[in-house]
Amino acid sequence: GVNEKMSAREARKGKEMEQASIRAKLAAAYADGALDPALRLLVEAQSAAAPAGARILAGDEEGPRPEAPAAPRGDLIAELSALPAVIQNAAIQALARRSWGGPLPGLKWIELDIGGKAVTRLLRVSPRARLPRHGHEGAEYALVLGGALADGVGRYQVGEVSFADDAVTHTPRAGDGRVLWMLVVRYGAMKLSG
């Protein structure tokens, strides 16, 4: 009863503080020009996708985009139209050089040509699919662009950023029965554990 309500409230407050901390650090580094190209893309995409009160950059695009229209099965290009323009542009440029990858059922990804030291990918995770359990040798930022992300550590909505480092092992999956779109910026290798 009361204890469950208090702990749910405390968990929400902790998540809000975590998101505010991530936004503040990224905003300061963006303003200083200290972000590499991959994190600059993440900040610009987050500011286009997030609700007005949760944007890293104030005054950017019009806010959250509508859910992707029902596209014919396998028409990933049509689904891209619901994502922020900065992501659409990066994906279209990458698709001119390579096709979608997908080593697991329900997972499609394309590596974006951003430059810098990070591996930067746009991922599409089907509603019942999950990524393998893994840890990290460096930092990983995952921005939710559509659907919701659940990873056993937290649950993230559109515009929220999941941060993981070498202390985190998780199993990301689509968290709400819809397709999950996310921009992943990773420094260092993944360490598969399942």
Describe, in plain words, how this protein is organized in 3D:
A 5-stranded antiparallel sheet has the order 1-2-9-4-7, with helices on one face. The protein has a 3-stranded antiparallel sheet with strand order 6-5-8, with no helix packed on it. It is α+β, with helices and mostly antiparallel strands. It has helices at 2-31, 37-49, 76-80, 85-95, and strands at 107-111, 119-125, 134-136, 140-146, 149-150, 155-156, 161-164, 173-174, 180-186, 190-192. It is globular and about 50 Å long.
What is the helix content?
25-40%
Total number of beta strands: 10
- By secondary-structure content and strand pairing, the structural class works out as alpha+beta
Estimated share of beta-strand residues: 15-25%
What descriptive keywords fit this protein?
alpha+beta, five-stranded antiparallel β-sheet, 4 helices, 194 residues, three-stranded antiparallel β-sheet
Produce a short descriptive summary.
The chain is an alpha+beta fold and 194 residues long. Helices cover 30% and strands 22% of the residues.
Please outline the helices and strands.
Elements: H1 2-31, H2 37-49, H3 76-80, H4 85-95, E1 107-111, E2 119-125, E3 134-136, E4 140-146, E5 149-150, E6 155-156, E7 161-164, E8 173-174, E9 180-186, E10 190-192
Antiparallel strand pairs: 1-2, 2-9, 3-10, 4-7, 4-9, 5-6, 5-8
